[in-house]
Amino acid sequence: MTKAEIVQAIYTRVGGFSKKEAADIVDLVFEMMKETLSKGEKIKVTNFGNFVLRDKDERPGRNPQTGAPIKISERRVLTFKVSKNLKDALNRKAGSAPASVPVAAAEPGAAKP
Fold it and tell me: In whole angstroms, what is the distance from residue 67 CA to residue 60 CA?
């Protein structure tokens, strides 16, 4: 899905906004996310996941073509950890009910089936 498709979906589903206003809202959300992450803060979207900026130290590496040793510079990387609810929704078969846990297996100390 592209940014333009997100704008179109907001315009179509929410209503009450022009396409320009929908585009401005999407731009504002992404800008706020960039600003928050650049400050080193975490973004938590309930039932979706967490965006976290991590610092990676300098480390040794190898040039894959020549095999020569190189230093990989320190950098910041963005990580995303999916929420349990989203993970469950993505792994559910189309049209099937959510998987349930047998009561015996859910009890502490119970034997596993």
Answer: 12
Provide the 3-class DSSP secondary structure of residue 54: strand
The DSSP symbol for 101 reads -
Q: How far apart are CA 47 and CA 98, in angstroms?
A: 15
What residue has token string 């020549």?
Answer: 66
Q: By the 8 A CB rule, do 49 and 87 touch?
A: no
Neighbours of 9 (CB within 10 A): 13
Q: Which CATH superfamily is domain 44-88 in?
A: IHF-like DNA-binding proteins (4.10.520.10)
Compute the distance between CA of residue 80 and CA of residue 24 in angstroms, rounded to an integer.
25
pLDDT tens for the 113 residues of the chain, in order: 999 999 999 999 988 889 999 999 999 999 999 999 999 899 999 999 999 999 999 999 999 999 999 999 999 999 999 999 999 999 986 555 555 444 444 444 444 44
22 close to 5: Cβ distance less than 8 angstroms? no
